[in-house]
Amino acid sequence: MWLTSCIPLALALETELRLDGVLPEGGPDHVRVAFEVPEGTREIEVRHDDLSAANILDWGLDGPDGPRGWGGGNVEPAIVGERAASRSYRAGPIPAGTWSVVIGRAKVVETPARYAVTVVLRDTPTLSPQQERAAYAPAGALETGARWYAGDLHVHSRESGDADPTLDAVATAAEGRGLDFVVLSDHNTTSTHDLLVDAQARAGVLLVPGMEYTTYEGHAGILGATPWLDHRTDRTGEVPVADALAQAHAAGAVVTVNHPNLDLGELCTGCAWELPVDPASVDAVEIVTGGYAPVGRLFLEQNLALWEAWLDQGARVAPVGGSDDHAGGTGSGPTYSPLGSPTTRVWARELSVDAIQEGLRAGRTVVQLQGPGDPFVELWPDIARDASEVPDTATWTATVRGGAETPARGGTLVWVLDGAELARVEVTSDPFTDRRRVDVGGGDHRVRVQLLVEDAPRVVTGHFWLEDVAVDAAPETCAGCAAARPPGEATALALGVMTALAAVRRRLRPA
């Protein structure tokens, strides 16, 4: 007779914690519901429900060592483990101690605002290890040589709770539209960064790390840096927005204000910018979000006015645009703007994260409001492109070239000085060149151009910043140049005063 010994395998253990409750009325925008995690826990699952068809609650998870992710409005449970995590969350060690489910009041119209939360603690993970996760490291330059690189500065992947595409799908869509780079702008999470090295190895475009700093009173793009920023600022002032933006800059990020005038009421919580901010702490602003047609044009005039107002205060803010695409170019419907609509061109020394950031900080941007098929306009003074000075009399060249989808001929080139129209010229050829003499004297000023197509803006350039500049609006004789429309009386008077002031040699101030 054989004597057998049965040795039972260790059973997976699960512990469920019920954390149901009610949000305090009039309390802070973000409420933390704490729970204890014992030694030996290898995976945590958080199931959540706002128990209301009217209310919208956001969800996140903090550990003893800091934030582990922000799912926002994700309806599926959040899962974090040592080597895997659900979307919007980060994998890593599960330390024992006090953890917190973070609940955000995105929209509360029905009170009392109840919630149901179940936390499941496991000693055996249910998610398979995700080999694609790795610490972020910048890719080398995908291309060398200075030129205008085309990108989309505001794109979401599935790491945003309200988006669908994988990073591979985003990269494929961007490449299909002829872009060179794309900035990942997932809401309040850096989980995207853990996937970028793997995705970049297959991508034909540069994937720039980023995050959309999404509060209930405004959204900002954090471009090119990887630290998580505490977005729990907004109405309670728990973390001042100035501190968050300072932290972003300290980490090397470029900061943009996204869709600043997108006030859609309850349809888009916090989309319009209402946070108190010093314009000097902002590097760029979206003058258009989504292609000019059909959505971008609704807010373009307001965005341009805000941009110019910030510049009047002495800020050096570059114009940019972003699609805010959540569908990887595959969306539909009358208001959908695919990735690349609009397109932001950045003058950079190479196609790398550092170089794109340098170009943005310098204000060397051109925004094609509808997309890469728009005409292209560039403005340069007739000096070396890396020079830091402009002589007291300089000639500027604006060059217009037609796009694959929209011709330049028949458009109107508008010169803008300090936010006011200086001159306009009909575009009669392709390419088309307009050259103007710039005389220096009398205060600090800024110059840019824009192209109108069918009397509506289609391309907007960034500014050249000058100290003590005055502009002689008369065009220099050149082939393809058209006569400028005479400036109005107020503009002419201002130019006369400035021209009368003495000037020697002035520096071109970087944006």
CATH class of the largest domain: Alpha Beta
CA(first)-CA(last) distance = 90 Å
What structural category arises from helix and sheet content?
mainly beta
- Relative helix content: 10-25%
Outline the biggest β-sheet. 12 strands, mixed
If you average the pLDDT, what whole number results?
Answer: 86
The tally of helices reads: 6
According to CATH, the homologous superfamily of the largest domain is Metal-dependent hydrolases
Q: How large is the radius of gyration?
A: 26 Å
Secondary-structure arrangement, i.e. CATH architecture of the largest domain:
Alpha-Beta Barrel
How many individual β-strands? 30
Global shape: elongated
Q: Which stretches of 5+ consecutive residues score pLDDT under 50?
A: 1-11, 477-511
Q: What is the count of structural domains? A: 3
CATH topology of the largest domain: TIM Barrel
The fraction of residues in strands falls at 35-45%
Task: Write up what this structure looks like.
The model is unreliable at 1-11 and 477-511 (pLDDT under 50). Strand 23 and strand 24 (420-426) form a beta hairpin. The protein has helices spanning 167-176, 193-200, 241-250, 292-312, 353-361, 489-500; strands spanning 14-18, 21-22, 30-37, 43-49, 56-63, 66-72, 78-81, 97-107, 114-122, 144-155, 181-184, 206-208, 210-215, 218-223, 254-257, 284-289, 318-322, 343-350, 365-368, 376-381, 389-390, 393-401, 412-417, 420-426, 432-440, 445-453, 456-461, 464-466, 469-475, 506-509. With 511 residues, the chain is mainly beta. The chain folds into three domains: 14-122, Sandwich (Jelly Rolls); 132-372, Metal-dependent hydrolases (TIM Barrel); 375-511, Immunoglobulin-like, CATH 2.60.40. The N and C termini lie far apart (90 Å). 47% of the residues are buried. The strands form five sheets. Strands 10, 11, 12, 18, 19, 21, 23, 24, 26, 27, 28 and 30 form a twelve-stranded mixed sheet that branches. Strands 1, 2, 4, 7 and 9 form a five-stranded antiparallel sheet that branches. The radius of gyration is 26 Å and the shape is elongated.
